[in-house]
Write a structure and sequence with these properties.
The protein is of the alpha/beta class. 21% of the residues lie in helices and 33% in strands. It has three domains: 95 residues, Translation factors (Elongation Factor Tu (Ef-tu), domain 3, Beta Barrel); 131 residues, Nucleotide-binding domain of ferredoxin-NADP reductase (FNR) module (Rossmann fold, 3-Layer(aba) Sandwich), CATH 3.40.50.80; 99 residues, Ubiquitin-like (UB roll) (Roll). Helix 5 links the parallel strand 10 and strand 11. The structure holds FE2/S2 (inorganic) cluster (FES). It comes from Streptomyces johnsoniae.
Length: 352
């Protein structure tokens, strides 16, 4: 459930981004305890947005949690409500969620982060290096320009605090610099050449790719070409393209809608189970929200994973999935915001 948290402070994270630090009161510390890489969901009226936690995790739950918010021009949330957040104001927040996580353990870990994708990676690196003396972290980050790069000081601070165990390389796509990598996008061919020069790729215990679709696809392709096992690669997409059209919006959609079934959805949420009708072609999340407005969701675009649930009965068609790992879909998990029924009875368990 959502909790109102007070903003302890805000600070500039980049020319067009802000770091918002929330105070977590002692009774909520356990609920808001996070695993590095997780995000918070903010709610303002009918709008919800997820923001990754940049600050390090603490054993008993942190008293302060910092998220990074990029101001998207014209963005209903980031350019409006989020811009007005200041010390002393408050915001409704869901406890941390997400499975793009790194639990500290010995080994060498690496990340390829683009733009605001640095945010969860910063929490991972800071927590890992502080908690696990036998761990190392290599970061390859990409930004348009130095001014747009979020959390530059925090990354520099990690270098100072953990010399020899933290290595970072910064690529700027639209800006010349006197040292470091030449400007340009990190495409697949460039990553394929760069990564083995930077670190022993096959000895990396976990790869974390976070950022826009183009960079993730390039990094995933490069790692595949380098022979890295799929289960060592973890992905979090920021900014997917537009959501697919609703069925019925065009001829192909109409055919899909004809395959979709009207029927009954039985859902378990916070220990309560109930059944409701679901219309043909409707997403399961829409059907649940009509009856349980407390159901978890944020992006409604198949990206954040907040609406993850286990399919316990029937079959569904998932329009798109940028959030679940193959092992999760094989285990029966679906994204409720992207799932439409293919059988007349469908069961979902949000608590699984
Ligand atoms: S609400 Fe974000 S994936 Fe469904």
């Amino acid at each position: 459930m959502f909790h109102p948290l007070t903003v302890a402070r805000t600070s500039r994270a980049a020319e067009d981004a802000v770091a918002v630090t929330l105070a977590v009161p002692p009774p909520l510390r356990a609920a808001f305890r996070h695993v590095p890489g997780q995000h918070l969901t903010f709610r303002h009226g009918a709008l919800r947005r997820t923001y990754s936690i940049a600050s390090a995790a603490a054993d008993g739950g942190a008293d302060l949690l910092t998220v990074g918010i990029r101001h998207v021009p014209g963005g209903a949330f980031s350019a409006g409500f989020a811009r007005e957040l200041a010390a002393g104001s408050w915001v409704d927040v869901l406890p941390p969620r997400g499975r793009f996580t790194l639990r500290p353990r010995p080994g060498h870990f690496a990340a390829v982060a683009g733009g605001s994708g640095i945010t969860p990676v910063l929490s991972m690196a800071a927590t890992l290096l502080a908690a696990e003396p036998a761990a190392r972290f290599t970061l390859l980050r990409s930004d348009r320009s130095a001014a747009s790069a979020m959390f530059l000081d925090e990354v520099a601070d990690l270098k100072d605090r953990h010399p020899g165990r933290f290595q970072s390389l910064h690529a700027l796509t639209r800006e010349e610099r006197s040292a470091g990598l030449p400007p340009g996008r990190l495409d697949r061919a460039r990553l394929r050449a760069l990564l083995p020069a930077l670190l022993p790729c096959d000895a990396v215990a976990g790869w974390y790719l976070c950022g826009p679709e183009g960079l993730i696809d390039a990094a995933r392709g490069a790692l595949r070409a380098l022979g890295v096992a799929r289960e060592r690669v973890h992905i979090e997409l920021f900014h997917a393209g537009a959501a697919p059209p609703e069925p019925g919006a065009n001829a192909a959609g109409a055919a899909d809608a004809a395959n979709a079934q009207a029927g009954t959805l039985t859902a378990t949420l916070d220990g309560r189970r109930a059944s409701w009708p679901v219309a043909a072609g409707e997403t399961l999340l829409s059907a649940v929200l009509r009856n349980r407005p407390d159901a978890p969701y944020a992006c409604r675009g198949g990206v954040c994973g907040t609406c993850r649930a286990r399919l316990t009965d029937g079959r569904v068609r998932m329009d798109r999935n940028y959030a679940l790992e193959p092992a999760e879909t094989e285990a029966g998990y679906v994204l409720a915001c992207q799932s439409r029924p293919l059988t007349d009875r469908v069961g979902l368990d949000f608590d699984a």
